[in-house]
Amino acid sequence: MAESFLARQAGDEEFRLAEALRSVKLFVETGLDADEIARAQELFGRLARERARRFGIRSVIDRYPALTLTTLIGHAGLAYDQGKYWESFWAVVDLTPEPDFEAALRTRLRGMLRKFGMREFDDLGAQYVQVLAVHAGIPVHCLNDLVEVIEQHIAAGRDRDGAALFEWLTEPGMGYRMGSLDVPVRNFLRFGGEVAVDIVDRIIEFAEYTVEHPDFTNDLGLDTSTTGLPDALLDALIDRLQERPFGSEARVSGPAEARGRRPAVAYNRIDDEIVIEVPYPSTAPETPWLVSFDGDTVQVYAERPWGLSDTRLCPPTSVPVPRRVRHVLLTHPGSGARHTLPVVDKDEPLLLFDEYGRALSRHTALPRGEVIAVHPGDAELLDADRGARIAATSECVPVGWRGWVARVCALDDVDGVVLRRDGSTGPVVRAVRAVGAARLEPATPLPGLSTRNGLHVYAERPTVLLPPATAASVVWWVRTRRAGTVDWLTDEEWESSDTESCLDPFDGIESGLLGLFDIVVSGPLGSDLRHTFFLAEGLVVEYDTPFRVPEQDGMSECTAELVALSPMAVDTERVRFDRSTRETEVRVRSRDRSERLILRPPHVELRVDPVGSAARWRTAATVLSAEDMTDDAVVAVRVPGDVEVDLALVTATGSVAQVEIPEVLRGNVFQVSTRVFADTARALRTSTLSARVDVAADVTRLVSLARIRPTRLFAGVRLAGSSLIFDGLAGPEMAAFVWADTAPWRPPEQVAISDGTACLPAELTGAGPLTVQVFVDDPWSVITSPARPDDTAVRMEQPGWVEDPDPARARLSRYLAGAAPLPRDGMAFGAIWPVLVREFDAAHGRDRVADGLIEALSVDPRGAVEALADSAIPQSEFPALLIRSGLVERGFDSVVRGERNAHPWLGCLMDIADLPLLKLRTSAEAERAEVAGYLASRGGPWLTELLSGKVGDPRVGVLDANTLRMTGFDAVRVEELKSACEIIPGALLDIDTRFSAVFDAFGQRQAWQRDPALGILTKASAPALALLHRAAPFVYGVVAARNEVLTGVDTTEHPWLLMSLQSLLMAVSARLAARGVLSRPFSPETRGAWARLAELCPALVATDLLIADALACYHIHNDLIGVTA
After folding, report:
1. Crossing angle of helices 829-843/807-816, nearest 10°?
2. CA dihedral in degrees (770, 772, 777, 782; nearest 10)?
3. 588 domain-assigned
4. In this predicted structure, what is the pLDDT of residue 1087?
5. Which value, to the nearest 10 degrees, does the dihedral of the CA atoms of residues 973, 975, 976, 982 take?
6. Pairwise CA distance, residues 429 & 434, whole Å
7. Please, which domain of life does this record's source organism belong to (predicted)?
8. Comparing C-alpha atoms, which of 556, 544, 667 is closest to residue 607?
9. CA–CA separation, 1067 vs 351, rounded Å?
10. Largest CA distance in the chain
11. What pLDDT, on the 0 to 100 scale, is given for residue 827?
C-alpha cells in the first residue's frame, strides 16, 4: 500500500513538474520556490530508496525525469558550494553516495534536458554541475559577490541595468572583470541570455527600492509576485541588504540623481550614419569633449538649446563615427567624465539597432519586428534555426564604413539570428523576443514638440499588448511610475486570455498625465519590457504652414496654435515665429505639475557634402564654385510632409537652366549628385541651385540650396584697429575663423561679418599675428571649427601675444612672440604639441623655437606623451612627432598612474613602461590584471606573446620578396587587398593590422625611393645592426628575420623593400636606448630620416615601435605578463 501511494504521489508531482519544464528554456524560469524544490527532493530520495532496490537506479531517472531534474537543479540553486555539490546532494536526498547512481545522473542529464526542450549548454562540455548551476540561475551562496559588482558598476557612473553590466563585464579582452564572481554566476551571465538580464534588472530595481525605503523589511508584500525574483534568491537578497545596505561599500546614487544622459551608439536612419550621442557636460560645458575613434581624436562642443537652463536636460549632440572602429573613448577634462563605448567586436562584427536607431545590446533579446543590421558586406544575417538568409527590405553603405552594409530586416517570423562570414557562423546566436512576449505601442508624437532634452512628446497614452495564452494562462505584471522615482503609480496583475489583450498601463489614473514615466511589463523571466515615455495627455499642436523655408535673413514666418484639454493648460495658445526665431519654450500645466517644452515648427534643411562623408545639415545656402560642382558630392534637401520635389539650376535672371529628378530617401530626403549640374554651372558662371517644392496644387516653393559663384569667398582682408575689413565677399551670409598664431593650442574664434566688417574679440586685439579664413555662415546650425586653417586662409601681422588665463600658456605665448625666453617651469605640455606641429610643418626639421620646446618636453617624457595622447592632433602624426622630439628614445614609466589613456597605441607604450613597477607592487594585483587585459585587448594576442618572449614567426606581415610581385598589380587590385585587411578593425598587432600597414608602405614606395632620407637610413643600418647584435642578440634575431625574407631580391634596385627592416631596426634601437641598453643610437641626420619615414608610413612605424617596445621590455625584465594574463 505504501509503495502504491508513493507511486501515485510521485506520478502527480512528475506530471506537474513536467508541464512546468516544457514551458521554459531555463529551469529558473519555472519560478519554483524553495519549499516546492525541497518537496521534490524529499520525494526523489524516497523513490530512490524504495524503487532502486527493486528496479535499479536508472529506472528512477527514466520514469521520473522532471522530478530528477528539479532535484538536481534545485540543489544547485539552494546549496551550491564550489567543489562540494555531490557531497551535500546525497545528504539532502538522504541517500548513501553511490558512484553508479552519480554516473547515471551525469550521463542522462542532457537527455532529460532535451526531453523537455530545455537548453543543454554544449559549450560547457562535461561540466555537468555547471550546466545545473546555469539552469538554477544565481545560486544563493554566490549572490553576495554579484551584488558587490553591481554596486561598483553603478558607483562608477555606468547605466543602471543588467545589459550595461553585462556589456562591461564581457568586454573583449577584459575577462579579468569576472574574476570576483563565482563560476556559476559567470556561466549564468554568459549563457543565461535575456533571463539573466531580467534577473539582474530586478535585483537592481529591488536594491534601489531599499535605498529609498530603508525600512523595507517591514513590507509584508515582498515576494516573488511583487519583485519578480525567485523566492530563494529574494530571501538571500533581503538578508544581504539587511546586513549590508546597498551602496554601503561603494556610494550608489539614487535613481533621480543618476538619470543624466550617457554617451550611446546610435544609427541615424535619415543620413545612414552610425553616430555617437554625446551628452551635455554636467560642469564646464565650455570645455570640449575629446572623442577618440581608435586613437583619432576630435574635439566636440556639446550643443545647448536656446533658453535651456537645466543642463541635465540638454539633448545629446550627434557625432558621426567616421570609419569602422573598435572603441570610442569620450573624455571631458572639465568635468572629469570618461566613457568607453565598444563598437565593432572582431569575433562578432555585427551591430544591431531597433527601428528608431537605438543600439541593441548583445545581452538583450531583439524586437520581433524591424531591426537595422550593420555588418561587413561579405557576410549575411541568417535565421539561426533554419539556416536561411534573412531578406532585407532595404540596404545601403553607412557613411564612412566602406565594405560594410546596413540592412533593414524584419524579424517577425524569426526566433534567433546569427552572422555568417567566410563560410562559418559567428559565436553568438542573438535571440528574438518570444512570440509570447508583451509589446508596447506608442501613439503618434506631437509634431514639432519635444522635451528640453530632445524626447518626443505624446498626447495619448501608449497601449500594452499582451500575447494570447497558449497551454496555460500567463500572469503579467504591469507597473508605471514617474521616472526617477521608485514608488509605483499603478501596479496591477493581468491574466492573458485566448486572444491578444490591449490594456492601458495607467488604468485607474485620471486623464491629464504630464511628465516622464517609466512603464514596466513583467511576465515570465526573459520577457520583461521597459520603456520611458513623456506624456502631455490632451495637448494638440497645429501650424498654419506645413514647413518653414530658408530665407536670406532667417526662416519664413509661421504661427503655431496649442489647444489643451482640461485639466491640461498652456501658458500661451498662439505662438508667432518671426524670421529670426527657430524655436521657443512653452509651459504646460496639469493640476499641480508644470513642464517646460520646446516648440520648433517643421522646417526645410539642406546640405552639400562629399559622397561618403558625414551629413552636415544646415538652413542657409552654401557658396560653391563651378569647379566644386565636379567633385564627387551630393546636394540634398529634407522637406517635411507630403510633397513633390525636383532640383533646378536657376540663372541670375531667374530662368530655369536645368532640372533633375532627385533620388528619394527615407525621411523625405531628396538628393542628386552635384556633377549632373557641373557643365551647366560652368557655362553660366553665376547661378543658384534650388529645390522646387510642390506643396499643393499650383503652389510651389523655391528653396535656395547653393549659390554658384567665383572660386574665392573673399578677395582680401585688412586689420583696422579692432576690426577686420573684408573685400570682395562672395555673398551676404559670411563669417570668419580667426586663429591666434602665438597661441596655436586655442581653437579659432568665429566672428560674424556684417557689411564687409567683423569685430575682433577683445582677447585677439593686440594679441600678435592672426590667421583668417572665411566661410559661409548658418545662424541656425552649429558650424564645426576646422583643426587647422586651409589654403584659402590669410595671415595678418599684428604686434603682441595672447594673454592666456593659464600662466604657463601665457608665458609660452610671450616666448612664441619673441618677447620672453622659454619658461623653465610649469610648462603646459598640451599647448606645446600644437606649436611643435606647426614648427615642424614650417621648417620640416628643427629651429630655435622647436629646440626650446623639445628641451621642455624632455623634462617629463611621460607627461609629454600623456598630453599628446589627449590632444586632437591626428594620430598619424604621432610617430613622427615622438621621433623628431627625441621622446622616442626616452622612458615612459611613471610612479603615479593616471586615468586610462584615450589613445590605444600610446596607452600600450605607457602600460608596457609601467609593467616593471607593477610587478614589484604586491598590492597591485587588480591593476596588473587591468593592464594585462588592456594590452591584450588593444594590442592583441601577439603583443602579450612578445612581452612573454614568444615571438612566433616574425617574418609575417612585413615587406618581403613576395611584395615585389605586387608592383605588377594595378591600383584597384592593390586597394582590394588592402581593404580586405581593414574591413574588420583589429588590435594594433593583429596580422591584418600589420598587413594593412605594409600596403600603406607599398603605396609610398616611390615617394620613399625618391627621398634623400632613404639613403641616410640605408647608410646608418649596417652599424646599427652590428651594435644591436652585440647588445641584444635575442632582439637582433627578430630584426634580422626581416632581412632574411628579402633573400634573392636586389635591394639596390628596389631599396624601398628595406622599409620594414629599417623601421624595426630604428625602433628597437630607440626603445633599447630608452632603457639604457644603447647610448645615443642616432645622429640628428638619422633621426630626421627616420621621422621622414614615419611621415610617409605612420602605420608601419607605429606598429614597429610597439613591437620594439615589447622586445626591449622582455630583453631587460624577461616575462612580466605571461601570455595567459
Report:
1. 20
2. -50
3. no
4. 94
5. 160
6. 14
7. Bacteria
8. 667
9. 37
10. 114
11. 67
Q: Are residues 974 and 1104 in the same domain?
A: yes
Whether residue 627 is found in the same domain as residue 726? no
Exposure class string for 643-666: b at 16+ Cβ within 10 A, else e: bebbbbbbeeeeeeebeeebeebe
Same domain, 950 and 1073: yes
Q: Are residues 648 and 663 in the same domain?
A: yes
Q: Dihedrals φ, ψ of 381, to 5°? A: -90, 125
Residue 328: what pLDDT?
93
Tell whether 52 and 131 lie within a shared domain: yes
Q: For residue 929, is it within any domain?
A: no
* Positions in the chain short of pLDDT 50: 1-2, 255-259, 307, 844-846, 1123-1125
> Which of 577, 578, 580, 576 lies closest to 553 in space, CA to CA?
580
463 assigned to some structural domain = yes
Is residue 723 domain-shared with residue 702, that is, in the same domain?
no
Instruction: Name the grid cell of 285.
Output: 560645458
Residues 231, 74: Cα–Cα separation, whole Å: 12
Are 996 and 982 within 8 A, CB to CB? yes
Q: What is the CATH number of the domain that holds 421?
A: 2.60.40
Q: Find out whether 188 and 286 touch, Cβ atoms under 8 Å.
A: no
Task: Map grid coordinates 579659432 to a residue.
Answer: 748
Q: Which of 104, 136, 168 is the C-terminal boundary of a domain?
A: 136
On whether the CB atoms of residues 960 and 1044 are closer than 8 A, the answer is: no
Q: Residue 1012: is the preceding peptide bond cis (ω within 30°)?
A: no
The reported pLDDT for the residue numbered 731 is: 74
Set of cell numbers at residue 1058: 628595406
User: Domain tally for the chain?
Assistant: 8
CA distance 1038 to 972: 33
Separation CA 636–CA 622 (nearest Å): 12
Helix, strand, coil percentages (3-state) for the chain, rounded to 5, are 40, 25, 40
Domain finish residue from 675, 708, 741: 708
Pair 894, 911: CB distance under 8 Å: no
Residue 885 is predicted with a pLDDT of 94
What is the SS3 assignment for 718?
A: strand
**Whole-number pLDDT of residue 1:** 42
Nine-digit cell string for 601: 515648427
Smallest CA-to-CA distance from 861 within 843, 834, 886 is with 886
Asked whether residue 788 is assigned to any structural domain, the reply reads: yes
Q: Where are the alpha helices (DSSP H) in 669-824?
A: 678-684, 807-816
Domain with 785 in it = 716-796
**CA gap 315, 303 in Å, rounded:** 8
**pTM score of the predicted model:** 0.80
> Are 1076 and 869 a contacting pair, CB within 8 Å?
no
Phi and psi at 441, nearest 5°, equal: -115, 115
CB-count burial class (<10 Å; 0-12, 13-18, 19+) for 303: middle
Give CA–CA dist 829/860, Å, rounded.
9
The CB density around residue 978, as the number of other CB atoms within 10 Å, is 17
Distance between CA atoms of residues 99 and 255, nearest Å: 52
Q: Are 817 and 801 in contact (CB under 8 A)?
A: yes
Nearest in space to 533 (alpha carbons), one of 444, 593, 435: 444
Unique residue bearing C-alpha cell 619615414: 1093
How far is 38 from 50, CA to CA, in rounded Å? 19
Is residue 21 domain-shared with residue 100, that is, in the same domain?
yes
Cβ count within 10 A of residue 594: 13
